[in-house]
Design a protein that fits this description.
- This protein is mostly helical.
- The chain is 67% helix and 4% strand.
- It is built from 25 helices and five strands.
- Strands 2-1-3-5-4 form a five-stranded mixed beta sheet.
- Helix 20 links the parallel strand 1 and strand 2.
- The protein is globular and about 80 Å long.
- The N terminus and C terminus are likely disordered.
C-alpha cells in the first residue's frame, strides 16, 4: 500500500478518535466521582498504603527494597519525580488514569477485527466500568492489565514488529506483577494453541504465523521479566513486613483459616462482579469477533473460569483475583449486546432491546455500587499521628525498634486492621526508618482468638529479629489505632501519641520527610496530567509498533508505562537513585528513544504500511 493510499484510508479511522476520547473522559469522570463527591484526599482501596511505602523505601534504598514487584514503585517514582506531584496524588491519579485506559484499550481490541463502532464502544465502556475492581487499590494488577491489552492490540496487527512490541509491553508491565504475568502468558499460550488448531483445520479465520508470533511475544516478555527479577537480587533487601491478613495467616501456619478467608471473600463479593449474568451475552459476543481477537477472548474467558474453579477447590490463591482479571467477559458481553440488538427482528425486537438495556444497566450498576462504597484505608488523623511518633523515632540513633500497639474492638480476627495500621505507619514515617516500626497486639486482642495468639507470636519473632544496635527502642501508642486509650503513665504528646519508652521530646518541631498531602482537585488534575505524560512518553514506541493513527494514540499510555518502568529499573540498578532530577531525565530518555527509533524506521524504510484491518462502521 502506498503512502498516499494509507493517508487516504486513514481519514475514516481518525474519526474514531472522537468517540474514544469521549469514552476516556466519561470513564475518568466516573472513576473520579468518589474523590470529588466524598472529598477523599488519599487513594482508595486496602493496598494503596502499601504502594505508598513501597515507593518511598524504593526511592531511599533502591527498588530492590520494595520486593518482588519492582514495576509499580519504579513507575510511581518516575511519575512523581517528573511531574512534581505528591506521591498520594500520583498513586490515586495513576489508578484512575489506567482504569480509563482499560476501557479505551478494550474498545480498540474489539475494533481491530471488525466490530461496529457501537459494539466496540459498548465493549470498552463495560470493561472500563469493570476496572473499578482493580482501581480500588490493586495498582500492580492494573498496570499489567493495561500492558496485556496493549500487547493484544499489537499482536492483532499480525506483524513481526507487533510481536516484538507485545513482548516489550508484556515484559515491562509484567514486572509490576510477575505472578499475573504468568496468568497472562498462560492466556496467550492457550490462544496460540487455538490458532494452531484452526490452522490445522484450515479454518476461515486462521491467520498464518499467528502461533509463532504469540510464542515469540511470550518468550521475549519472559526474558524481560526474568532479567528484571534477577536484577533486584542485589541491593537492599525488603523489610520483614506482612502487608495483608493473608500474609499473616500464611506465616502463622493457619492454612485452614486462609482457605476459608479466600472462599468467604469470593462469596461476599461475587454479586458485585455481575460477570456471571453476562456469560450468556459473552457467548453471543464471541461470534462477533474474528481471528486472533476471538481466540484471545475465548482463551481469556476459559482461563478465568478455570482459575476461579481451581481457586475455590484448592484455595491456593484468592479466586476473586481471577475474576477481577477477567476483562474478556465484559468485552464479549458488550459485543454480545450489540449483536443481539442488530440481529433482533419482528415482534421480538422490543423485547431484545429491553433485555439488552436491563443487562447493560445491571452490569454498570453492579460495578458502580462496588466502586462508590470504596473509601481510603488511610486517614489524615492516622498519618499525622504516625508522623508525630516518627519525630520521636528520629531522636534515636539508627537502627531502632518502634513498637506500637494496634487494637480492633470486638473483632475475633484483628489481623486485617493490624496489617492496615502497619502499612499506614510505614507510609508515614521517614523513608529511611521504614524498616523499624513493628506493631503489637494488646492483651485483650491477643486472647480474642487462636488466630490473634498465633499472629502475636509472629510479631514477637519479627521484633526479635530486628537489628537494634545499642538496643534503642521507641514504644508509643497512637490514638487512631487504639480503641481504648492506655492508662499508662507515659508522656502524652499532642493528644494523639503516648510515649511509654523513648526520647523525652521529639527530635524536630515538624516531621522530617512527611508523606505529601493532596486534595480531590489535585487527584483529578493528576489523573489527566499522568495520562498525558504516559501518552507522550509512549507515543514514539507506539508509532514504531503499529501504523493505525487511532491505535497509536490509544496504546501510547501503555507503552509509556512499560518504557518508564524499564528505564527506571535500569537507572536504579546501575546505582542511580530515582530522586531529584533523575526521574525526569530517565523519562525523557524513555520517551526520546521511542521517537528516535520511529524516525530511524522511517528513514530506513522499514516502517511498512498499515497492517491492522480498518473496517467501515
Amino acid at each position: 500500500m502506498s503512502d498516499t493510499s494509507v493517508a487516504r484510508s486513514a481519514s475514516p479511522a481518525v474519526r474514531d478518535l472522537i468517540p474514544l476520547a469521549v469514552l476516556a473522559i466519561a470513564l475518568l469522570a466516573f472513576l473520579l466521582t468518589p474523590f470529588v463527591v466524598d472529598g477523599y484526599s488519599f487513594p482508595l482501596g486496602p493496598d494503596a498504603p502499601v504502594y505508598l511505602w513501597w515507593t518511598r523505601i524504593a526511592g531511599a534504598e533502591g527498588i530492590s527494597a520494595a520486593g518482588d514487584r519492582p514495576g509499580a514503585p519504579a513507575l510511581l517514582l518516575e511519575l512523581t519525580g517528573t511531574t512534581g506531584l505528591p506521591l498520594t496524588a500520583v498513586v490515586a491519579g495513576v489508578e484512575v488514569a489506567l482504569g480509563a485506559m482499560i476501557g479505551v484499550l478494550s474498545a480498540i481490541l474489539a475494533r481491530t477485527r471488525g466490530a461496529s463502532r457501537p459494539a466496540w464502544l459498548l465493549a470498552g465502556a463495560l470493561a472500563g466500568v469493570f476496572s473499578v475492581h482493580l482501581v480500588a487499590g490493586y495498582l500492580a494488577n492494573l498496570i499489567f492489565v493495561v500492558g496485556f491489552l496493549g500487547a493484544a492490540v499489537c499482536l492483532a496487527s499480525r506483524t513481526r514488529r507487533g510481536s516484538w512490541a507485545a513482548a516489550a509491553l508484556l515484559g515491562g508491565t509484567g514486572l509490576a506483577h510477575p505472578y499475573f504475568f504468568l496468568v497472562g502468558a498462560g492466556v496467550l499460550l492457550v490462544t496460540a494453541g487455538l490458532a494452531r488448531r484452526d490452522t490445522s483445520r484450515d479454518a476461515d479465520d486462521a491467520e498464518p504465523g499467528e502461533e509463532r508470533r504469540i510464542v515469540t511475544a511470550v518468550l521475549g516478555a519472559g526474558a524481560i521479566v526474568g532479567a528484571g527479577l534477577l536484577s533486584i537480587l542485589w541491593g537492599a533487601r525488603p523489610p520483614d513486613v506482612e502487608t495483608s491478613r493473608d500474609g499473616f495467616l500464611r506465616r502463622a501456619g493457619l492454612g485452614a483459616e486462609l482457605a476459608s478467608a479466600y472462599r468467604d471473600r469470593f462469596v461476599d463479593r461475587w454479586t458485585r462482579y455481575v460477570q456471571w449474568a453476562s456469560l450468556p451475552l459473552a457467548a453471543i459476543g464471541i461470534g462477533l469477533a474474528r481471528g486472533f481477537v476471538a481466540r484471545l477472548l475465548l482463551a481469556w474467558s476459559a482461563v478465568t473460569v478455570v482459575g476461579v474453579l481451581v481457586g475455590l477447590a484448592f484455595a491456593w490463591y484468592p479466586p476473586d483475583r481471577f475474576v477481577t482479571f477477567g476483562f474478556a467477559i465484559p468485552i464479549l458481553a458488550g459485543l454480545g449486546i450489540a449483536r443481539a440488538i442488530t440481529g433482533a427482528r419482528g415482534r421480538w425486537r422490543p423485547v431484545v432491546y429491553a433485555a439488552a438495556a436491563v443487562l447493560s444497566v445491571a452490569m454498570v450498576l453492579g460495578a458502580s455500587f462496588a466502586w462508590f462504597r470504596n473509601e481510603p484505608y488511610i486517614t489524615e488523623e492516622e498519618v499525622h499521628a504516625a508522623e508525630t511518633a516518627g519525630r520521636f523515632l528520629d531522636g534515636l540513633p539508627m537502627p531502632a525498634l518502634f513498637s506500637f500497639p494496634v487494637e480492633e474492638p470486638d473483632a475475633p480476627a484483628p489481623t486485617f486492621e493490624l496489617a492496615r495500621a502497619w502499612n499506614v505507619v510505614l507510609a508515614s514515617v521517614p523513608a529511611d526508618r521504614i524498616r523499624e516500626p513493628v506493631p503489637s497486639l494488646l492483651p485483650a486482642s491477643i486472647h480474642a482468638s487462636e488466630e490473634a495468639r498465633r499472629v502475636g507470636r509472629v510479631l514477637e519473632e519479627i521484633a526479635d529479629e530486628r537489628p537494634l544496635g545499642e538496643q534503642h527502642t521507641l514504644d508509643a501508642a497512637m490514638r487512631p489505632f487504639i480503641a481504648r486509650w492506655p492508662s499508662s503513665t507515659g508522656r502524652q504528646w499532642e493528644d494523639e501519641v503516648l510515649v511509654v519508652d523513648g526520647p523525652e521530646t521529639p527530635a524536630s518541631a515538624t516531621p522530617r520527610d512527611p508523606l505529601g498531602r493532596t486534595s480531590p482537585g489535585q487527584i483529578a488534575l493528576a489523573s489527566i496530567v499522568l495520562l498525558l505524560v504516559l501518552g507522550v512518553a509512549g507515543f514514539g514506541w507506539a508509532a514504531a509498533s503499529v501504523t493505525s493513527t487511532v491505535t497509536r494514540v490509544s496504546i501510547a499510555p501503555a507503552f509509556g508505562a512499560a518504557a518508564l518502568i524499564l528505564t527506571g529499573l535500569v537507572v536504579d540498578r546501575v546505582g542511580i537513585r530515582l530522586d531529584g532530577p533523575v526521574p525526569a531525565i530517565a523519562a525523557v530518555l524513555a520517551a526520546g528513544s521511542g521517537y528516535a527509533f520511529f524516525l530511524l524506521q522511517r528513514r530506513t524504510g522499514t516502517h511498512s504500511a498499515e497492517q491492522v484491518e480498518e473496517h467501515p462502521h
